[in-house]
Amino acid sequence: MDSVRKTALVAGIFYLITFISIPTLALYRPVKNHRDWILGSGGHTAVLVGGLLEVIVALACIGTAVTLYPVVRRQNEAIALGFAAARVLEAGMIFTGVTSLMQQQRRGTNPHRPGRRVRGAAPPSCRCRPGGQDPRDGRRSALP
């Protein structure tokens, strides 16, 4: 097997790995459809699995950029560099999204006492609006 064929095989495998992200649409359903997901103490396993799959996709994006760069560089170096930069930027955005989602997931529950909210987190029944009144006791909100 010559080197171009090996490169094509490895790049094809990386592109197939990027299709792992398809099930994340269903795995992120609790985040998209429930307003109180952050404050809830329910199971977050599907979201964690979705985050893991997204990390795998981001690594596969970087893998495709690194694998195909030498091949495309022979045709046009500027296009090869642009392709690699775009794929690395895509991976960075995926990493940023997964990191923010995992931080939101951790924010609502106390890791030392499962099922209990973190101190200072707003209760799920609070429907305060910025500058408005708390419907439970009529106090003004501290938010601007």
How would you describe what is shown here?
This protein has 144 residues and is mainly alpha-helical. It has one domain (3-107). The chain has helices at residues 3-17, 24-27, 29-33, 45-75, 77-107. α1 (3-17) runs antiparallel to α4 (45-75) and α4 (45-75) packs antiparallel against α5. The radius of gyration is 22 Å and the shape is elongated.
Number of strands: 0
Helical segment tally? 5
Q: Considering DSSP H and I runs of 4 or more, what fraction of the residues is helical?
A: 55-70%
- State the domain count: 1
Largest sheet: none
Kindly state the mean pLDDT as a whole number? 78
Rg measurement, Å: 22 Å
Structural class: mainly alpha
* End-to-end Cα distance: 66 Å
Query: What is the element string, with H for helices and E for strands?
Result: HHHHH
Strand content: under 5%
**Which shape, going by the Cα principal axes?**
elongated
Query: Low-confidence spans: pLDDT under 50, at least 5 residues?
Result: none
Task: Set out the fold topology.
Layout: H1 3-17, H2 24-27, H3 29-33, H4 45-75, H5 77-107
Helix pairs in contact: 1-4, 4-5
Any descriptors?
mainly alpha; 144 residues
Short description:
The protein is mainly alpha-helical and 144 residues long.
